[in-house]
Amino acid sequence: MAKKSFQNYTSLGSASAKLVLENLPFVLFLGFLAIIYIANAHYAEGQVREIQTMKNEVRELKREYNSLKAELMFKSRHSEVERKVRDQGLHVIRDRPLKITLDNE
Fold first, then answer.
1. 98 belongs to a structural domain
2. For the whole model, what pTM was predicted?
3. How many domains in the chain?
4. Closest among 25, 9, 28, 7 to 17, alpha carbons compared
5. What gap in Å lies between CA 36 and CA 28, rounded to an integer?
6. Which domain holds residue 80?
7. Which of 4, 40, 94, 99 could form a disulfide with 8 if both were Cys (CB 3.0 to 4.6 A apart)?
């Protein structure tokens, strides 16, 4: 039995080359689907990374919000407000306000 060379397999007269050429549109379609599959996988990985980044950002913003909220709650306490305005000469009146009435006669 004689050995067949690579050129014999790729020549147009060969049965395998004929088979490949007849199915070339299908082979190209499969290649196109493979490219789409790879591109979709890369896109999905990018989306997952973006979601993780946004989750971390949201977590950090929640921490900052809670910190600012606690600070505001502390600074708006009656004793803290009183201490801050004492420097401006204001003070808390402990007795009841006086009621002024006028006679219209």
1. no
2. 0.54
3. 1
4. 9
5. 12
6. 15-86
7. 4
Whether residue 75 is contained in a domain is answered as yes
Residue 35 lies in a domain: yes
CA angle (57 as vertex; 54, 62 as ends), nearest 5: 125
Side chain identity, residue 69: K
Q: Which alpha helices (H) appear in the chain, and where do they start and end?
A: 6-10, 15-22, 24-75, 78-86
The dihedral of CA 61, 67, 71, 74: what is its sign? positive
Distance CA 91, CA 76 (A): 16
pLDDT digits (tens, 9 = 90+) for 50-71: 999 999 999 999 999 999 999 9
* Length of the chain (residues): 105
Q: Report the C-alpha gap between 16 and 6 in whole angstroms.
A: 12
| Structural domain contains residue 23 | yes
- Interacting residues of 11 by C-beta distance below 8 A, sequence separation 6+: 17
